[in-house]
Amino acid sequence: MECPNTTALDDESRLTAAVRDFFIAQNAAELRTAVTDLPSAWQDECLYNADWEQTEFAFNRLFVGPMALEAPPYASIYLENEPQVMGRTTMLARSVYEMIGLVSPWKNTLPDDHVSLELDAALALHRMLLAATPSVRGQLEELRALFLEEHLQVWVPRFCARIEAAPSATPVLLCMAAVLRQWLGTSIARQG
Predict the structure, then answer these.
(1) Which residue from 20, 41, 92, 190 puts its CA 20 to 30 A from 148's CA?
(2) pTM of structure
(3) 164 within some domain
(4) SS3 165
(5) Residue 114: DSSP 8-state
(6) Does 114 fall in a domain?
(7) Which residues contact 102 (CB under 8 A, 6 or more apart)?
């Protein structure tokens, strides 16, 4: 579900893409690349003095496993009565993607309510709004508002709080939790 190369993107798109890429990274090099792709106004000194191998270890402890995750990156963990994935919340996320013509490249292997996939959908909605004709703009604005305010705004702060409370959290992970919170607040504010 990836949007085009971030070099041609506006600052909001670059920010969203960098945060998306950070939370789906596979190794220390990808974590570092995602951080360096943040627009300069969002970069923090602690991101550059990081021990990237330790950050990768902590990232896996918080978000990947194999042990119980300290901060699961799935909306359903924070929104469902029973904290499990692949339920109603996952299917809701999948339906939003389908409405805007996206399909997860990890469909049926990585739950669709993973934070990076949801950030990718938010990025796609933003990009679609930039190019929208007046006849569809209202519908896209409504869908984006619903997705940001009634979905992401409900669970992302809880996710960030879990990162901040996690014993394994490193300065980079704490900074990226703060960036994710700020991204969400800024994205919602821009709608008004």
Answers:
(1) 41
(2) 0.91
(3) yes
(4) helix
(5) B
(6) yes
(7) 1, 120, 121, 124
